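Weekly sync notes, structure subgroup
Attendees: PM, AL, DS (notes)

Item 1: joint prediction request from the bench team. They want all two components modeled as one assembly rather than separately. Inputs as received:
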Amino acid sequence: MTKPTEEKKNGISKALAVVKGIMAHGIPGKPRFRYVFGSGLFFALILQVATGIAMAFYYVPSARDAYGSVFYIQNEVTFGWLIRGIHHYGASLMIVLAVLHLAQVFIAGAYREPRQGNWLTGVGLLGLLFAFGLTGYLLPWDQTGFWATRVATSIAGGVPFVGELSQKFLVGGSAYGTATLTRFYALHVFALPLALMALLAPHLMLFVNHGVTAPPRDIKSGRSEPFWPVQAFYDLVFMVVIVLILMTLVIVVGAPLGAPADPVGTFDARPEWYFLFLFQLLKYFEGPLVLIGTVFLPGGVLAFLIVLPWLDRSEGLSFAARWKVMVPMTVIFFGVVGLTVEARLSDSEDLEYQSHVLSQEKERQFAHAYAKNGFAPDGKIPELEGRRLFSSLGCKGCHKTEDEGEVHGPTLDGFASRAWFLGQLHDPDAPERFGNTAFKGEMEPADLEPGPMGDLVEFLASKTGLEYEPALDQEKIKRGEEVFSDESCDACHALEGESMGAPNLGNYASDEFLRALFRDPAAEELYGSLNEMPSFEDLSNSQVDALIAYLRSLRTWTEVALPTKD
Amino acid sequence: MVSRRKALSIINGSLGCLVGASVVVPVGGALLDPIIRKDEKGTSIFVDVGALEDFPEGAVRAVVANEARKDSWVQYPPEPSAGLFVRRIKGEELQVFSRVCPHLGCSINKTKSGGFNCPCHGSAFDDSGARLDVGGKMNPSPRDMDALDVEVREGRVWVRIVHFRTGVAEKEAIS
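Output from the run, pasted for the record:
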């Protein structure tokens, strides 16, 4: 005898039953647009997780490779720019949505009995959002992220008792480097997501249990409407709005990426906008009073948020009944907004800050232009490394480049370009050549007709080993070699072998010439006894290569095609 | 006439697809990048592998050529990486083969008789790199040894290093 067919109770039908349950879930009164913020947040979270996982296929959390991997995502990976953009603006959007959600929940009094647990998990989730923002900001290992994190962790270090230990924990030791990056990565990708899930699960379950907090008139009406399709429609429309806002920001502005982090030197950093209120707050307290800004005020606000469900046990939404919590909350809200606005305003009026921003932007553009050639095995961009060394080694004290620096030695803009050679031949005593050095008066200008001049320039350019645009003309080089001896340049400038009193020009401005120059500019076959440039024997090979790469980047400053007519 | 509820359900479905696509398309594209984005093939440059006089006529020499490898975003300087056989037939007439076996990628050796064979699975080639018919024994290579472009410039031998897909009969460049 066959048993009666039992109702199927497998996993699929159970899952379908859950979905149907959500769709039929009753909303007291009617669906309202104000209820969308929670689901909007959840959608934004899914976007962060999905884009975050996509980036994890390419990102490398080491001081050497982080920047290169992010540059690769931004510029080469299919939709990499879009993924990164969604993730960057999605983070800010989540903060905005969280505040909107908090505001709506607060105004509706949805933190009161029996929803205290829901409120508390929500406050914890908000705190986690800020932690995500802080840890994520460092990961590209660019100047902004690096220096903003240095400031943030130093602030943490100032907290009494636990400060030093927590700073060491966050930094991964005493120095900021790969150890800091790996732990921020582990927090951002593993620990914080787990903590988020641990709080989000009860948050959602409690919400499903208690239902949405509808306004009193909706509850009084006795009616209720299912979630599907109207509330679902509102939620979906809001998700589309979120997508449109994110796409607009990504396509019109794009995710920012600074120059690679440079632990040497200084950088005027600002944290992400949602931390600016804390940044601004600290400007008002000095010395031991700093604790008011770092510990007491933020701690006070946190304590207020935590005890809120017990501070306001009234019923109804009237201001008269709830002023004890509405006033502080309003003060906190406008305080935070006001501090954020003030931070931006005072920056815009700070001329020193603005000039730093300009030079930092210049460095960023330089870095990006040359990063496209690829990164060296040590993770650096050679031209940028050279540019930074050029400053830090003090070369700017004698050599002007990019319109910055002193003029005690030759200006190096356009170095080794045809125009540069022309300038040197035409007026060697010009202040931007050797006019301010001991070599003044040593060399006579070569005043030739344009034809022979161009040939001589071509001949000299052929010694550098570089490629020129337009390409070097072999005929002109041959004629130039004759000009070189006809005009007796070779009376002082040997091409090889023993020096004739002036620098040998056989490999002038080539890589080997420059390497020898850095080691010993006073060598006989280089600048000899009149030399004033210090030697840099202690530079490593990669540092020398970086300086050479920077000098090569300067060539395009004034690369000009010479007249071809004889 | 469709009911309001049904109409909204359809609209919701469309919005849901739009929202879902806004997640799946960018993320999918990024994850499938290695398949979507083709590497530049056959754009490798010629590299100098030695002086012509260092390759005796009628003989085959094994050399290792330098390649400037790019690993995602990292540009490595030229490093020895590509094994080659350079066969100088006569004068400036040369043949250059990749040592990578077209079967599964092992490194091919010279044999005493002047031909080539692969120690891994027994692929065998004659002195001009052509796949040999070895009678009863197995010759698993799907094609001849991969010849590379060679030029003689001012007494030096220059070779264009290209890598080819293994395991297929066609000689298909992969980088």
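Discussion: Residues 559-566 of chain A have pLDDT under 50 and may be disordered.
Action: AL to compare against the crosslinking data before next sync.
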